[in-house]
Design brief:
The chain is globular. It folds into 2 domains: 3-80, no CATH class; 85-292 and 312-418, no CATH class. It is built from 21 helices and no strands. With 419 residues, the protein is mainly alpha-helical.
Length: 419
Amino acid sequence: MNLETDPLLQKIAALLFALALLHTFSTKQFERLAARSPRHAGLFHLLGEVEVVFGFWAVVLIASMALIGGGSGAVEYAESRNYTEPLFVFVVMVIAASRPLLRAVEASLRTLAHVVPAPTPLVSAWLSLAVVPLFGSLITEPAAMTIAALMLSPQVFQPYVPERSKYFALGVLFVNVSIGGTLTSYAAPPVLMVAGTWGWDSGFMLANFGWKAAIVVMINATVATIVLRPNLRQAIEVREHEPVPLAVTLVHIAFLAGVVAFAHHPIIFMALFLLFLGFTQAYERFQNPLILREALLVGFFLAGLVVLGGMQRWWLQPIVAALEPLALFAGALGLTAITDNAALTYLGSLIEGIADSSKYMLVAGAVAGGGLTVIANAPNPAGVALLKRGFADETIGAGGLLLGAAGPTLLAAAAFLLL
């Protein structure tokens, strides 16, 4: 029995997907319930973790499949999903956040900040919001998100910064990372889904998407830095630790480069990750605690999205296939707010005879809308996991993120449509 085509299960999966979306928008309410109900605070805190949402509802979906179609069918469906992306994001988050790599990035940004004739805190924030997201086209978007979030956390996402300013900075970060990966054909998940099928190489991406994205990234970063300026009290935090030897930093860079190079081969990049863990133990005095918990939660979130999203094709693909180019752009921009943008472009890649103009509009809309919600782009949960402690109740409200990302998203949409 093919559970993916069972009408009843399709409807149940759509309902669970809708409940998961509603849950995503309600995480702050669970945190407030935890404060009011100490007896069940642990459960409410768990349900208030945005990274848990889709994994939780994916488990409910698999249980529903087991009840309706049998346990073997449910297991077969779960095992038929491709979990390469969740595994990759988990691995690249841990490596990118390691102390030697962060110290190297901090030193580079500090050097640039001192060269530019402007206040160092201002330049540091701008570089973190502009240069690091664009660098994601080389090291992949999840790595760029991890590094940018950790660079911005001690400077921007602090209690003395107004919540509205923090949400705007977060929206800019998410949008810039989403479009900043379009300078190459392998760094942005929604581009990766179609690049092979449509024959889009890095030259094509740079000529048709990358330069437009770079302009928008710099404008967004500039506006965000101006908004944050009254509250930028310090430059990038300098951590007082034993200096990291150059050789150790180079080994970490080599591990990151290897994982990126084999991003589509989980057996290889997981083997590299295990070697990386061994290396960090061997040179523990040059390390900070690895962010294993945060990365695991993000991987769980993305895996849940893979499981739930796999059952949404029956209603999503007809919508994508039926739209004309301009309507497809608007549809992709809107739909990516409620589903992963890589899933949208993947569905588009399955449409036979799709016009070149429609291909462009689909991908442009998907990447432009990648900052609107936590689930819109695969690296977003990583940013949430690393930055949520800087917000009230240590949670990021979906409404606040949507408002913060609205302006940067509209600018990106205008650039892809008009330039």
